[in-house]
Amino acid sequence: MEQPVSRKRFEVGFNAFLLLFAFIIVISSFFNLVDTDRNMLYAIVGIMIGGGSVIRLYKLKKNT
User: Fold this and answer.
1) Any transmembrane segments, and where (predicted)?
2) What does the longest C-alpha to C-alpha distance in the chain come to?
3) Domain ranges of the chain
4) What is the pTM of this model?
5) pLDDT digits (tens, 9 = 90+) for 16-45
6) In angstroms, what CA-CA distances link 48 with 8, 12, 35, 41?
7) What separation in angstroms does the CA of 19 have from each of 13, 33, 38?
8) Which of 56, 55, 45 is nearest to 22 (CA)?
């Protein structure tokens, strides 16, 4: 019985880490001091990663 509990804890922790990482990417792309052409690309990638992580966390919460 320990396997499903530890797996769920891992999935929640991993997706929370991805959400934090995506948040940092989006914030750093908006407050980048060096103006490059890739800022918008990094913001879009961060939003996509964060959105996927939020959806996965919602599905994990919904199944409990």
Assistant:
1) 12-34, 40-58
2) 52
3) 2-62
4) 0.79
5) 999 999 999 999 888 876 777 788 888 899
6) 22, 18, 22, 11
7) 10, 23, 21
8) 45
